[in-house]
Specification:
single chain; 291 residues; alpha/beta; Rossmann fold; five-stranded parallel sheet; two-stranded antiparallel sheet; 12 helices; 40% helix; 17% strand; globular; AAA+_ATPase; ATP binding; P-loop_NTPase; ATP hydrolysis activity; Putative nitric-oxide reductase
Length: 291
C-alpha cells in the first residue's frame, strides 16, 4: 500500500489539534496494518478522526474492524483504551471504580479510572467494541463525551472531565447478532459510519500470507476460494456470518500448517457453529476443495 495522501488543509487541522501522524509504510505498521480492497476506507477514517469526529465501523465479524482501529492507533501514535461491551456492562466498567487504598498508614478511598476517563484525560483513542451489545440504558452516560462538548460528569468523584484535544472515539458494531440491540438514532447520529466489507480475492490472500503461519501458496489459494464460497452461503442465509470470519480463517490456516486441511477447518471454523445443518454445509464445501 502506498502512503496515504491527505489534503493539505486536513494536515493543518491535525497540526492544530496536536495530532502526530505517521504514514502506513513506516516500520512496524506494514506487517499488521488493516488491508482492504477499498483504500478509501482507511483514508476516510483518518480524515474523520482528524476532524474530531467519532467513527463507527460497521461490518461482519472478522472483517477487520479491530485491525482498522489498531492501525489508526499506530498512525496517530496514540495509545488506544478498549471497552468490550456486553449486557453486564455498567458505569464502573466505563468510568472506573472506587477502592480502598493506604496512604501514610491511613486507609483512603481512591478512584481507579476506567477506559473512558483514562482516554479523555490523556488525549488517547477510545475503542468501543460491539457497542450494540450494551444495554441501551448504559450508553447515555457517554452522550456528552460523544458530542461537541467532549465532557463527562463523573458520578464517582463529582468532577467534570474535559477531554484533551487529541482524544478520539472509534466504535464497532455487528448488526443482527443474538444479544445485540439497535442503536438509537441520537447515539448513531454522533458517529460517522464507515462500512467494512468482507476481505476477498487477492487482498484476502495478502492477509493470509502476512498474518497466518501457512506457507503453502497453493493451499492459501484454496483457502481463499473456500472463503469466497462461504461468503456466498452467508449471503444466501445458509450459514451464519461467523463461518466466514477472516479471524477464524486465519486460525484455520495456522492449524493447516500442521494438520490436514479438513481437520483444520473442523477445528477452526466448523466446531464453532451450533447447528448440524450449518456444520455439514461448511464441511461439504471444504471437502470439494480439499479432496
Amino acid at each position: 500500500m502506498n502512503k496515504v495522501e491527505l489534503p493539505a488543509d486536513i494536515e493543518k487541522v491535525m497540526l492544530d489539534r496536536h495530532l502526530i501522524f505517521s504514514n502506513v509504510d513506516d516500520e512496524g505498521i506494514n506487517e499488521s496494518r488493516f488491508i482492504a480492497a477499498d483504500e478509501n476506507i482507511l483514508t476516510d477514517a483518518i480524515i474523520a478522526l482528524s476532524l474530531g469526529k467519532n467513527v463507527l465501523l460497521k461490518g461482519p465479524t472478522g472483517s477487520g474492524k479491530t485491525k482498522l482501529a489498531e492501525t489508526l492507533s499506530h498512525l496517530f501514535k496514540q495509545p488506544m483504551h478498549s471497552i468490550n461491551c456486553s449486557v453486564d456492562m455498567d458505569a464502573e466498567a466505563l468510568l472506573g471504580f472506587k477502592t480502598i487504598g493506604v496512604e501514610a498508614g491511613v486507609n483512603t478511598i481512591e478512584f481507579v479510572p476506567g477506559p473512558v476517563v483514562k482516554s479523555m484525560n490523556m488525549g488517547h483513542l477510545l475503542y468501543i467494541d460491539e457497542i450494540n451489545m450494551a444495554k441501551p440504558e448504559t450508553l447515555p452516560i457517554l452522550n456528552s463525551v460523544l458530542d461537541y462538548r467532549r465532557t463527562l460528569f463523573n458520578p464517582f468523584t463529582g468532577e467534570v472531565i474535559k477531554a484533551k484535544r487529541t482524544f478520539g472515539v472509534i466504535a464497532a458494531i455487528n448488526e443482527g447478532y443474538i444479544g445485540t440491540v439497535q442503536l438509537n438514532e441520537a447515539l448513531k447520529n454522533r458517529f460517522v459510519v464507515i462500512d467494512i466489507p468482507y476481505v476477498q480475492n487477492d487482498i484476502l490472500k495478502k492477509v493470509l500470507v502476512n498474518e497466518s503461519n501457512l506457507r503453502n501458496e497453493a493451499m492459501i489459494d484454496t483457502f481463499v476460494k473456500l472463503s469466497e464460497d462461504l461468503i456466498t452461503q452467508v449471503s444466501n442465509g445458509q450459514i451464519p456470518e461467523e463461518a466466514a470470519s477472516i479471524r477464524a480463517l486465519i486460525d484455520t490456516c495456522d492449524l493447516a500448517e500442521y494438520l490436514p486441511p479438513l481437520r483444520a477447518i473442523q477445528r477452526g471454523i466448523v466446531d464453532k457453529l451450533e447447528e448440524e445443518r450449518e456444520k455439514s454445509a461448511v464441511m461439504n464445501i471444504a471437502a470439494t476443495l480439499f479432496s
